[in-house]
Design a protein that fits this description.
This protein is of the alpha/beta class. It folds into two domains: 170 residues, Medium-chain alcohol dehydrogenases, catalytic domain (Quinone Oxidoreductase, Chain A, domain 1); 150 residues, Rossmann fold, CATH 3.40.50.720. It is 22% helix and 27% strand. It has eight helices and 15 strands. Helix 3 links the parallel strand 9 and strand 10. The protein is globular.
């Protein structure tokens, strides 16, 4: 075996976390640097060395930037100032000390925001077996966002039935666009909301939603929902929270279900919006359930079996917003929190 000290050394561009962020992240909270890395895992190590190809920008990443006094969410690995941030990505194995991975394997999972990453916990990597679909899809429909959407719809919500009415907020994002399409495939009437007319057009013209509206242009959200759902909402997939959730509560059907995996409107406000319509939960006997991808990774093989045919048969459309170059990653990530992206936000680090 070649000794580690004789391994090739290359430059490794990295996105470094500057310091903890109490409010909305800014581009200045990160900086780009270049280090040197050996293209060989340390001798005797179980680690995997990968070349990163695509990185996923996800809303959850802002929680990993929080200072100690705001760390009230269990299960998050917080970023360390002065080190690269990490997230979900797609990569190619350069060298491996782990028997489950070999040089040349394509993988997706948790990796660093850098050109090359030495991954000490390869159990967080999934080997990619289907390469007849774009590799970038493993940051979205076949990655973490895909697990969230698939399991949220088919497992947590129990596969909503033909004819049910479904409302999806943040509907053009990485999760929302998939939930809406799964609902259409199941014969549901589906309405989405987004923050620009371009996104509304995308929902109606490309993603097959029955209707959609721009919540920023609706002076009365209750009236907008009554216009789209004159008989009420059976199921609401919640990604926004705040005033929109308050209006939704007024428009749910009796025994309606609300499934919550995010409330992005509340992440950066000093005082969360006060909900005035909570009694609707009791009056209408509503079910409200939170969910996260973390509880459903064991179902990933089932997801692949179901979704890969959808992609091949073009039953599902995957909208991506891709930026080129690791140096443009911070702007793409920060833009996610102001709704600048159109579809799943992806950073392309290197060509395959």
């Amino acid at each position: 075996m070649e000794k580690n000290d004789s391994a090739v050394e290359v430059k490794n561009k990295q996105v470094i976390f500057r310091d903890y962020v109490a409010d909305r992240p800014k581009e200045s909270d990160f900086y780009i640097t270049t280090s040197i890395i050996k293209l060989k895992v340390p001798e005797g190590s179980n680690a995997v060395l990968v070349k990163n190809l695509y990185l996923s920008c996800d809303p959850v990443m802002q929680f990993q930037m929080k200072p100690a006094y705001q760390r009230n969410l269990p299960g998050y690995n917080y970023y360390t100032p002065g080190l690269p941030i990490n997230g979900f990505g797609v990569a190619k194995v350069v060298d491996s000390g782990n028997p489950n991975f070999s040089e040349g394997d394509l993988v997706w999972g948790t990796t660093g925001w850098e050109e090359y990453s030495l991954i000490q916990t390869p159990e967080k990597l999934f080997k990619i077996h289907h390469t007849d679909v774009p590799l970038s899809y493993y940051t979205g429909i076949l990655g973490m966002a895909g697990i969230t959407a698939y399991c949220g719809f088919y497992e947590v919500a129990g596969s909503p039935k033909n004819g049910e009415t479904v409302f999806v907020s943040a509907a053009s994002g990485g999760v929302g666009q998939l939930v809406g399409q799964y609902a259409k495939l199941s014969g549901c009437y589906v309405v989405g909301t987004a923050g620009t007319q371009e996104k509304v057009d995308l929902l109606k013209n490309k993603l097959g939603f029955d209707d959609a509206f721009n919540y920023k242009e609706e002076p009365d959200l209750d009236a907008a929902l009554k216009r789209c759902f004159p008989d009420g909402i059976d199921i609401y997939f919640e990604h926004v929270g705040g005033k929109l959730l308050d209006a939704v509560l007024l428009n749910m059907k009796t025994f309606g279900r609300i499934f919550v995996c995010g409330m992005i409107s509340q992440y950066h406000v000093a005082e969360p919006d006060v909900l005035k319509n909570l009694m609707q939960i009791a009056f209408k006997r509503l079910t409200i359930k939170g969910f996260t991808h973390r509880d459903h990774h064991h179902l990933y093989p089932k997801l692949v079996e179901t979704v890969i045919p959808y992609i091949r048969e073009k039953k599902i459309v995957c909208i991506e917003d891709t930026v080129e170059g690791l140096e443009n990653g911070p702007a793409a990530l920060v833009g996610l929190f102001s709704g600048r992206n159109l579809g799943k936000q992806v950073v392309k680090v290197a060509h395959e």
